[in-house]
Amino acid sequence: MALNERNVFNLGDFLPWNENFATLSGTTGIAWKSARTVIGLSFSAAQVRFVDGADYIGLRRGHYRLQPNLFFSTMLGNATLEGSLSPFRAAFPDKEFETVERLLYTVKLKLPWRRFALELASNRPVEDTTLPFTAIDLVTSHEAKVTATIDERNAVSLIARRKTDDYVGLDARSDQKNIGLEYQRALGNGLLATASGSWRRTKETGLAPIDSVNLLLGLQKQIDLSRAAPAG
């Protein structure tokens, strides 16, 4: 995998070259399922190695990861609830970074009511980063979405999001806030047209906040591969 992240330490620019690394991982798990509920436990172990051995300032970022995970999903009436808890540990054998131990999680709730649907989601995973003096990016995101179904073809959604990137071991953070509207129209034959507009504010450590307006037009085609092929 190649990674290159814009950062304030490089005057807000990208690195002159990518950092390349490979991950070897294995996962095992078990789950119990009933008519409306699934509960399970999994465990993953991984080794991350960088091709060049050291990064552009000479630090060795290779490390080992251990991550058990308890997960569930259930139906409560018409509502759908799912989530997970995952103690995460990353150990660096070269001792150039401190061991990282964090509790990761996901939680999602979808609650339909008449022509409306409320969706709440929150999650905290980890990602790799090319910022100096840190190897782990702790990402936390929250989203609230209310969708109003006008008729069988048209729907409008109000969406609010917040996402933060905390670079473990380095006093640096990126904070994005976003609010917007989205309109969807089903065109038939699996075609879905979307139009959305949103306002976003981004604040990064050491930089002034940046406001932006995003407009998006989209067209999606749904292909159903589950249908059996007609007999010849």
Polypeptide structure, described:
It contains no helices and 13 strands. By secondary structure, the protein is mainly β. Strands 1, 2, 3, 4, 5, 6, 7, 8, 9, 10, 11, 12 and 13 form a 13-stranded antiparallel β-sheet that branches. A hairpin with a 2-residue loop joins β11 and β12.
Structural class, please? mainly beta
Per DSSP, the total helix count is: 0
The low-pLDDT segments are none
Distance between the termini: 44 Å
What is the overall shape? globular
Q: What is the radius of gyration? A: 22 Å
Identify the notable features of this structure and list them briefly.
232 residues; 13-stranded antiparallel beta sheet; 0% helix; globular; mainly beta
What is the topological layout?
Blueprint: E1 2-3, E2 19-33, E3 37-50, E4 63-76, E5 79-91, E6 100-113, E7 116-124, E8 126-128, E9 136-149, E10 154-167, E11 173-188, E12 191-204, E13 210-221
Antiparallel strand pairs: 1-2, 2-3, 3-4, 4-5, 5-6, 6-7, 7-9, 8-9, 9-10, 10-11, 11-12, 12-13
Please summarize what this structure is.
The chain has 232 residues and is mostly beta strands. It has strands at 2-3, 19-33, 37-50, 63-76, 79-91, 100-113, 116-124, 126-128, 136-149, 154-167, 173-188, 191-204, 210-221.
